[in-house]
Amino acid sequence: MTEPFTAPQRLPAWAALSAHARRLDGRPLLGFFVDDPARAERLSLNFANPVESRQSALVADFSKQHFDDAAFADLIQLAREAQLDEGIRRLFAGEAVNFTEGRAAAHMAMRDGCPLPDKREAGGAGAMRAFAFALREGKLAGSGGKPIRRLVNIGIGGSDLGPRLATEALAGLQADGGSPAVDFVANIDPRDLDTALARAEAASTLFIISSKSFGTAETLANAEAARQWLREKLGGNADIGAHFAAVSNAVEAAAAFGIRSERVFPLPEWVGGRYSVWSAIGLPVLAAIGGAFDEFLAGGQAMDEHFRSAPFERNLPVWMGLAGLWNTDFLAIESLAALPYAHGLRSFPAWLQQLEMESNGKRTLRDGSRSKVATAPVVWGGTGTVGQHAFHQLLYQGSRRVALDFIVPVGGNDPRQRALVDNALAQAAALMTGRDLAAARAALARRELPASEIERLAPHLVCTGNQPSTTLLLPRLDAFYLGALLALYEHKVFVQGWIWGINPFDQYGVELGKEMARALAAGQTGGQDASTARLAALAERFRQQTS
Fold this sequence. Notes:
This protein is α/β, with parallel strands linked by helices. It folds into three domains: 36-95 and 294-500, Glucose-6-phosphate isomerase like protein, domain 1 (Rossmann fold, 3-Layer(aba) Sandwich), CATH 3.40.50; 107-290, 3-Layer(aba) Sandwich (Rossmann fold), CATH 3.40.50; 511-546, no CATH class. The chain has helices at residues 12-24, 29-35, 39-42, 69-81, 84-93, 123-136, 161-170, 190-198, 217-234, 251-257, 283-289, 292-309, 316-329, 348-360, 392-397, 415-433, 437-445, 451-461, 479-500, 510-521, 530-546, and strands spanning 44-48, 57-61, 150-154, 181-185, 205-210, 244-247, 264-265, 335-340, 378-381, 403-409, 469-474. Strands 1-2-11-10-8-9 form a six-stranded mixed β-sheet, sandwiched between helices. The chain has a five-stranded parallel β-sheet with strand order 4-3-5-6-7, with helices on both faces.
């Protein structure tokens, strides 16, 4: 039976917010600061590592978002009317917030952020840890006795994006020299695996096959290719099983592939793929960073506690969720650009794409009806300062408004790092402020151009401004703050999904394309549209010509 549910647009605060949006339409963002010098301090939240001085903390600045105090107060009221407090209680109590599949979403348990739904699941973490540290200490050998010094993680989606991001961000932080090299392979395109294998020595390489069902087509195709490569390199008498481990619940399927049962690490059913980096899916991260993995978990757990206990008025995930909802539903902004100013976070936009778009890219509500409001935005982005020389032009002078999240670790005193931070802050300010026609004329006049040339060029220098942004300023990029950052966005997604009335923890839509791909692989083109059937026939002809 479907529980009572009120669609968000029927809540009183929704009408009030629509009125605020009309009232604020066209008002320059910069004007908010002119009218209220204390705005930046009041619309910022700090989140600190509890074991450190609060002088060093993550600072989340929402003052460049396009709302004023009255609108923000009604956003908080919307959260109350949507009974978000009850949603948070259910999430942390292990109730079935994944209502379509009838189970909990208790990924927080993997970082001690909530109780384990099933105490039997606790044992796998110890086995995974022992295996990872044996790898780091050179105690695990391949079939010829040579220590394993390279890992290749074969997975896709949540079995790739989270561990890839965390490993890129944190590898090298441990100075003990125990870290094996780690590569990630996700694409079924042969070049992805071939690139990793070109760097690998078979005798000292271990493949981690990450698939909850051990049935993901792309992952199994790459796993089979890896097994064939090992056989060719090591010979037919080699113990190929010494070069494999798996993260999966399908122990029998993994065993049939040739993976020893003690090397199959379980992924609980109540941990969804895109929320799974904290679980056994994080095995390559643990092997890469060692003890820092505990700090990574601690950062996530600290954000869990903050989300669970802080009042909405000072709750960072709630603010993140409400700011995004305001942009999507009341300012009609259709995309969110994730802009990490750190090379270590280069995979963050891709990770966030899956988290937000697979979680909240839906239109069916709890009661089975269709949403009347917009849900997840299109998420994209790239690292600064590289993006400044690629797509920032559209942000300055394009025809669309885009919401922006700047993620800015400060780090040390390297002049290049200081320049990176300066660029991030300047981009957020410039995209908010813009440049009007008078300022464009003045800039050209300083070049001592003729008046006619100034008039000709000035319109081309105008930047609209008013691009709303949130800046997350991290004291440094370390394991604790990375864990807190990822958990922050996980909870942001829950806030929005709860208010919109959709389930962030299923992904039925992606199955449709997989079904069609299986049909094409089986040669079943009869039921396809004419375009797809023709393209499939052409592809088969090209294969025959190049075989």
